[in-house]
Design a protein that fits this description.
alpha+beta, 4 helices, Glutaredoxin, 2 strands
Length: 116
Amino acid sequence: MFLYEKYKNQGFEILAFPCNQFAGQEPGSNEEINDTVCTIFKAEFPIFDKIDVNGKNAAPVYKFLKSEKGGYFGDAIKWNFTKFLVNKEGKVVERYAPTTSPLKIEKDIENLLGSS
């Protein structure tokens, strides 16, 4: 949330897409997920309805993201919290592993926003 608060007024946006394709980590309804993220984690950014990110029913946005930046072992999303950095023109600039802390990508965000 820190990054969002720090950069949202400079054109930075976070879009969250819950997914239950990874060991059933998001079993709740869209309303339950939204309540949890907004109430417990105080998220102020958009939380979309639950989607598939892999397979034949993958959401179009994830088909696009994966086609632009594949992972180390192919383009499939391996786990929740895979992150993509997209510039203002819609080009996927970078893909980050689920284990990459959002704070570790701050410099990349600053470079895109021209605020470094």
